[in-house]
Write a structure and sequence with these properties.
Elements: H1 8-27, H2 33-40, H3 44-48, H4 54-75, H5 81-98, H6 100-107, H7 112-118, H8 120-136, H9 145-162, H10 173-182, H11 186-195
Helix pairs in contact: 1-2, 4-5, 4-6, 4-8, 5-6, 5-8, 5-10, 8-9, 9-10
Length: about 210
């Protein structure tokens, strides 16, 4: 027995619902299913044909954002753990401009369990980077690896939730914040950014 591929209009409707949900939730984080359906130009019944309820829709938004974040984590391959952490922060920050709603939803405590599972590849990458940096003597060792990784994650959460990612003036804020928590001095961070100015870029590719 073969599984039939979704009809093209069903795929387009689902994509439209997700796009409409991002737009509606960007304006009102508590936007109802009715508001999202209207924004998508669909009936409530059609929306429920794709998602069982509002929570299912939000979980899909979180999952789609997490997939993009995890792909970014997998792409970082710098040998220097300081540079790898800086590049990871820079790339994730730039991506947050495009998936700001998904990022905000992911940071919502109401979805913490689903988010933790969806972002496990990213968290594994961060944990490995911290271990590598501590072993190399580049990151602070007064804290255990898991504790330091959690602190880096928490400061990143704060930066995303309290800063306007689209503002060019904040291009290197995430990088500076996570490197500072990792144990680098502000002078060391300045030197790293001076050597790799692409890490402060926003809205453009960071690799030549």
């Amino acid at each position: 027995m073969t599984t039939r591929a979704p009809r093209r209009d069903a795929v387009e409707n689902r994509a439209g619902i997700l796009a409409a949900a991002r737009a509606a939730l960007a304006l009102d984080p508590h936007a109802s299913i009715d508001a999202i359906a209207r924004s998508a130009g669909l009936s409530r019944r059609t929306l429920y044909g794709h998602f069982d309820d509002r929570e299912a829709l939000i979980r899909e938004l979180v999952s789609s954002g997490a997939q993009r974040f995890n792909a970014i984590a997998a792409s970082v391959d710098d040998a220097d753990p300081r540079l790898a952490l800086a590049r990871l922060a820079s790339l994730l920050w730039r991506e947050a401009v495009h998936v700001q709603v998904a990022a905000a939803l992911a940071l919502d405590e109401a979805h913490v369990t689903h988010t933790a599972a969806a972002l496990s590849p990213l968290r594994d990458t961060l944990a490995a980077l911290v271990r590598s940096g501590q072993d190399a003597g580049s990151f602070r060792t007064d804290l255990s690896g898991p504790t330091l990784a959690r602190l880096i994650e928490e400061i990143a959460r704060t930066v995303v939730s309290r800063t306007e990612a689209a503002d060019p003036a904040t291009g290197d804020l995430a990088v500076r914040a996570v490197l500072s928590i990792a144990g680098l001095s502000w002078r060391e961070v300045d030197e790293l950014l001076s050597d790799h100015p692409e890490l402060a870029a926003t809205g453009q590719e960071v690799r030549a």
